[in-house]
Amino acid sequence: MAKGYFWQHVVLVDPFPARLEALSTTCDEMVAKALTMFMMLNRKIEDVAQGHLASKYNLRAPSSAKMKGEQIKAVKDKVEKLVKGFLFLRGENDSNGKTSNFAHPGLWAICITAFYHRSSKSFCNHPEFKAALPYLAMLLVASLVKGYLDVYCEHGYIPERSQVPLIKNKKDYFIMKTELQHVLDHPYHGPKLDDMLERWAEDGMTGFELDEGASEDEECKIVLD
């Protein structure tokens, strides 16, 4: 139970807990355990993200690409389009033709799998996750997705044992956190995002079954149309 509440603290309060080392009331052993638990949580979400990226973002080469070099280039081209302007965050436009920010089906799939799986460590056991998926939980997933898409940009695939560097993960997280606030402050897109995250939590709580499967280019471009 204590581990579960610490994981919740990491997600909702301090996703990059470097400052734990500065807590004068915390002994070295406790700091080491806390940081270990943080890395375990991050690794868990990374594993989920890797499991869904290729299928949910269609990161496969077309059948017309026969040679390995052609296949890698085709995947890199797809990923570059997703990363530019952070298009990987967007879902389909809504019925009013408005942009859907932080709504990509890939984010939905990873969030549901990471936070609402059926086990004693599931976040669905915590009240904060029952009414709606918390903003910062969604951001943590989004920042890791961005990190792995950048790995795809570099290699055309995810090499074995790849991990997103913490410093890069943190940078992407805070870029998107700023843009998230712009969405939340918007009279149309803010309530729309809240409604969506409530639906995501409902999907998770009801056991929705998933199908298995800062240069200018790095700016997070949220559209509030």
From TrEMBL:
- Domain DUF6532 stretches: 2-157
Pfam families documented for this protein:
DUF6532
InterPro entries noted in UniProt: DUF6532
* UniProt superkingdom: Eukaryota
Designated name of the protein:
DUF6532 domain-containing protein
Q: Organism, per UniProt?
A: Paxillus involutus ATCC 200175
